[in-house]
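Protocol step 4 of 6.
Sequence for ABC-type quaternary amine transporter (Nocardioides panaciterrulae) entered exactly as in the expression construct, tag removed. Do not edit the line below.
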Amino acid sequence: MDVTGSADDRPMIRLSGVGKTYADGTVAVHELDLEVRRGELLCLVGPSGCGKSTTLKMINRLIEPTTGRIEIDGQDVTRQNPVELRRGIGYVIQQVGLFPHQKVLTNVMTVPLLYGESRSVARDRARELMEMVGLDPATYADRYPHQLSGGEQQRVGVARALAADPPVLLMDEPFGAVDPVVRVRLQDEFLHLQQDLGKTVVLVTHDIDEAVRMGDRVAVFATGGRLAQHATPADLLGQPADEFVSDFVGSTRGLRRLAVTAIDPRHLEPLDGVRTGDLGAAIDVDATLEQALAVMLREDKPMVAVKDGARFVGVLTPNGVHAALRASLAETNGRAGEGGPGGRAAAD
Ligand SMILES: Nc1ncnc2c1ncn2[C@@H]1O[C@H](COP(=O)(O)OP(=O)(O)OP(=O)(O)O)[C@@H](O)[C@H]1O
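Step 5 output, structure tokens:
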């Protein structure tokens, strides 16, 4: 057994003591230590101007840090040719940056062509990517960007960023320009895609709901480019590191936590004796408490049946939701009390 740890234990991205002071003296990022594990989706979240975009752009060297060191896959990024470096890093921005006078297919083909693929290989790859992001090439390939909705343009942006199959993807407010309903749909689609792709993703957002929904872990930045907390969504909501984080995640963090807390079979009641008319549509035992409550509210039922595959395992009532939420909060607080994950200690 390799006691030094396998290659996969090494972080994919490591920032050590990274700082950026702009020429006018603005400290955008201050002494940042941060690691992103392989295949992890890390959200950088915080108020406007706290250094999130600067941090992201330092990773692909669109901005050079003033201090510290950034490694990708163990390699110091400053020692790499920036063009080579960016080949391994997909970059998605809010403004999408599609070429307005080129058709959608051509826009996506640009990247494979840039890397020397033939036109026919590039075309096939572009079609495959369009399908992957949910844009039927038959409908969309020959449209121009202005003939797409904001959400569709954003999907093209994601397809283009994935075209070179980069192991790392940087996303700066990727769903920022679309309305809240489309935003949630794009978030879901991307999470689904990410399950298959397993990229290492750093996603910048100012929206705490997006961060806890999307992130395997979340880094909360405070003004002045200071890292206030780096934790899993559940730990962040259960155990904010300080008053700043607590205010930022908001007084409704208990409610937000519903979205990241799984159903616990210990809090289910037996199915026997329940009147069928009282039951909402069954949900899977892997669902979250929020999804369970949503079914009860949507169907105006006092409980919901829970299934594990084809087998019914019990029913969940609002009391069960409450008990599960309390138990999961107590677990986080208990672990924080033991010095376990929950605060900045969870960072690495
Ligand atoms: N080229 C620059 N010169 C001077 N200051 C800059 C420059 N670019 C950014 N800043 C400042 O650095 C700080 C961090 O900016 P950054 O864009 O990283 O923040 P952000 O957290 O991404 O903000 P937002 O959510 O508003 O996009 C801000 O105070 C900003 O005004």
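Step 6, annotate. Residues 265-327 form a domain with the CBS domain Like fold (CATH 3.90.1280.20).
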